[in-house]
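User: quick one, fold this
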Amino acid sequence: MVGRSEIKTAAAHIHGQVRDTPLLEPGAGFFDSAARIGLKLELLQHTGSFKPRGALHRALTSAVPESGLIAASGGNHGLAVAWVADRLGVPGEIFVPEVSPPAKVDKIRKLGATVHVTGALYDDALAACRLRQAETGALDIHAYDHTDTIAGAGTIALEIERDVPNVDTVLVSLGGGGLASGIAAWFAGTDTRVIVVEPETSQCFAAAMAAGEPVDVTVAGIAADSLGARRIGATNWTTLTSGDASSVTVPDQSIRDAQRRLWRHTQLVAEPGGATAAAALWSGAYVPSSDESVAVIVCGANCDPTSVL
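Assistant:
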């Protein structure tokens, strides 16, 4: 299990190497709510998403072989692992599915990693990655289901608590569960609620909550590249349920609307997965009370900017 101690250790390991991202308060009425709502701008992190926190922590706490790092990713995690490999001066090899946007794939290549586009979805790329890892012996940095990755992602919660003491609620999107479980691990046992937000078209946590255990789900929709895991990670599921996280889902149209609102009113270009947590507020999937303090994690920016216009 990951807790505050492990997250504090992760913060010390990656301090000065990842960005301490700002928390923006866009002002009263931005979310059609009287609540105090802040945007945690993790889309300003290196490579355009929160992923370098977990990937770097995993690499720094592991023995990295000469064959370097290997990972499967919908795109953002691959960017992070390629960035870490470049920093460490070791080879990077990334497997991405066909659903990954060309912009993300090109950015991975520009960071110097070898890229393989294989299979329709993330889980297909993961299977190919595991076969290759058995051949090369490279360090496999899983996108979400590893305690070091979770602890690295959890450092975001440490920053939120510092910037918004006694925050009532944190809204966070979920693909396989790395980010959300890191947030839940930090706030477990406190009065802060963690609300997991997923697209209606890809909702492995909501399905697991309904079934009482992780189950396979259908993956589709505009955020499938970043929030498109068929099943929540085992470690992530345990961490989220131990942290008493709640679940809401939003339609794709609300995610697209959130992208456009973020651009029109704050000039932030958020990819669909990055805007999903904010979509919960505008769609009414989560309605805060007037005296509530809410932090919304905007976790990714890797998309075609014209898609938010």
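User: anything notable?
Assistant: The longest strand covers residues 193-199.
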